[in-house]
Amino acid sequence: MLAQLKALQRLSAITQNENQAVALYEAAGLHSCFPIAAMSKQQFIDHYAKCFQSSEEQVVSEAQETPEKQAVSEAQAVSEELAAQAYQRALARASQLTLHYMNLKDANSPHYRALRANNLRR
User: Fold this and answer.
1) From first to last of its 122 residues, what are the pLDDT tens digits of the chain?
2) Residue 119: enclosing H or E segment and its boundaries?
3) What is the rounded radius of gyration, in angstroms, for the C-alpha atoms of the chain?
4) So where are the chain's domains?
5) Quick one: how far is CA 72 from the chain centroid?
6) From the centroid of its chain, how far is CA 62?
7) b (16+ CB within 10 A) / e for 39-63
């Protein structure tokens, strides 16, 4: 249960609301920004855009009549745009976390600790 809550917290950082984070977690078991960043933008949009639809849009997308088909295409365009925004946020977050990890790793290396510039006592 704790692992699921942590995953939802990480996903809610890249989505606009908790419902989208839950949908991403349940759809494919995505747990952080790293698996999202590992796939291409188009692949993410194709597979997970439906997770960004509201419940009203999902009901409209099941309709068969012609005027409602235009609403379907508009709703699909909105969900694809939201998915693209979430993908960009996931890429940015993955880059931030990777750089942070590299900085911490370098700061603790023996070479960095031996530098004269590193004059902080531990």
Assistant:
1) 888 888 888 888 888 888 888 888 887 778 888 999 999 999 999 988 888 886 545 544 454 555 556 666 788 888 899 899 999 999 999 999 999 999 888 888 887 777 766 666 65
2) none
3) 20
4) 2-91
5) 24
6) 26
7) beeeebbeebbbbbbeeebeebbee
